[in-house]
Amino acid sequence: MQLRGNLMLLAASFFWGTTFVAQILGMEGLGPYTYAACRFALGTVFMWALWYAYRGKRAAERRAGTFRSGFRAGIPVGLAMFVGVTLQQVALLYTTAGKTAFITTLYIVLVPLAAVLLGQRVRVLQWCGAFLAFAGVYFLSAHGEVTLNTGDVLVFICSFFWMAQILLIDRYARTVDAIELCFMEMIVCTLGSAVLAAIYESFAWGDVWHAAVPILYAGILSCGVAYTCQILGQAYVEPTQAAILMSTEAVFAAVAGWIVLGETMSPIQILGCALLLGGALMTQMPQHRARG
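The structure corresponding to this sequence follows.
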């Protein structure tokens, strides 16, 4: 079952990473909040269809007395994700995408720290994997920049909300309906993004139509499929290990940028990819106990 969880988290990371290209293409004519509202709205429609398709399974679980709705749990998860996404979007107005990616992945280290504070056990290999993956993201995206500005501070705050989202899903994924949890998560993000778009941006259907393909990719695969995979995957994987696996999003983003956008990767960035993948693999190694 853990292998299934790992594969689901890697699939989610793949869709998130490749959606970075869709985000660049989609926001050529759309504001960030309008783009986010459109993709999350499409994700909401996808999740509604999935929720409707599984109505028979829910009915059977209700009759058996084993069903627990995920709608209420989806509200705090959705709020954490919405704030994280919003801070990240605003931060990009003040800092580079590379530094944003690097600082955001502080959750790789924050999650095991929070897990310890919550009384959970974190293995030595998971700590090593977390720091190795964090170093990999630095080489992959920070490009040696060490100065901080307003955008960097916003991204730093954002990383705490991603940490909260991961830990909240870890709390609920094993006990409530995953589809309903993700459905409500999409609804919260859609409403929040739509309110910000209405306040700060203008809207034109022509611009949305022009960005239809990136929005479809991001809405269905990155929102609907990927976040469902995250919730289902975290039901079988510890939060620290899940955070490290999901950080491979940076590798998929770099490769997608190279293939689709023609972006180049320096030797130091390739080293970063190797370190990040090494950190992810390290968490899969069994912990050997000393014989007594």
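The two ends are 30 Å apart (CA to CA).
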